[in-house]
Amino acid sequence: MTIAAARAQLAADDTLAGRALCAAWTAEVDAWLGELVVAALDGRDPGGVALVAVGGYGRAELSLQSDIDVLLLHTGRRDIGELADRIWYPIWDAGLKLGHAVRTVKEALALAADDLDTATGLLQVRHLAGDRRLTDELARKAELGWRKRSKRWLATMARRVRERHARAGEVAFLLEPDLKEGRGGLRDVHALGWAQAARSILWDTDQASLRAAYETLLGARVELHRRTRRPGDRLLLQEQDGVAEALGWTD
Question: ∠ at Cα 62 (57, 67), nearest 5°?
Answer without folding.
Answer: 70
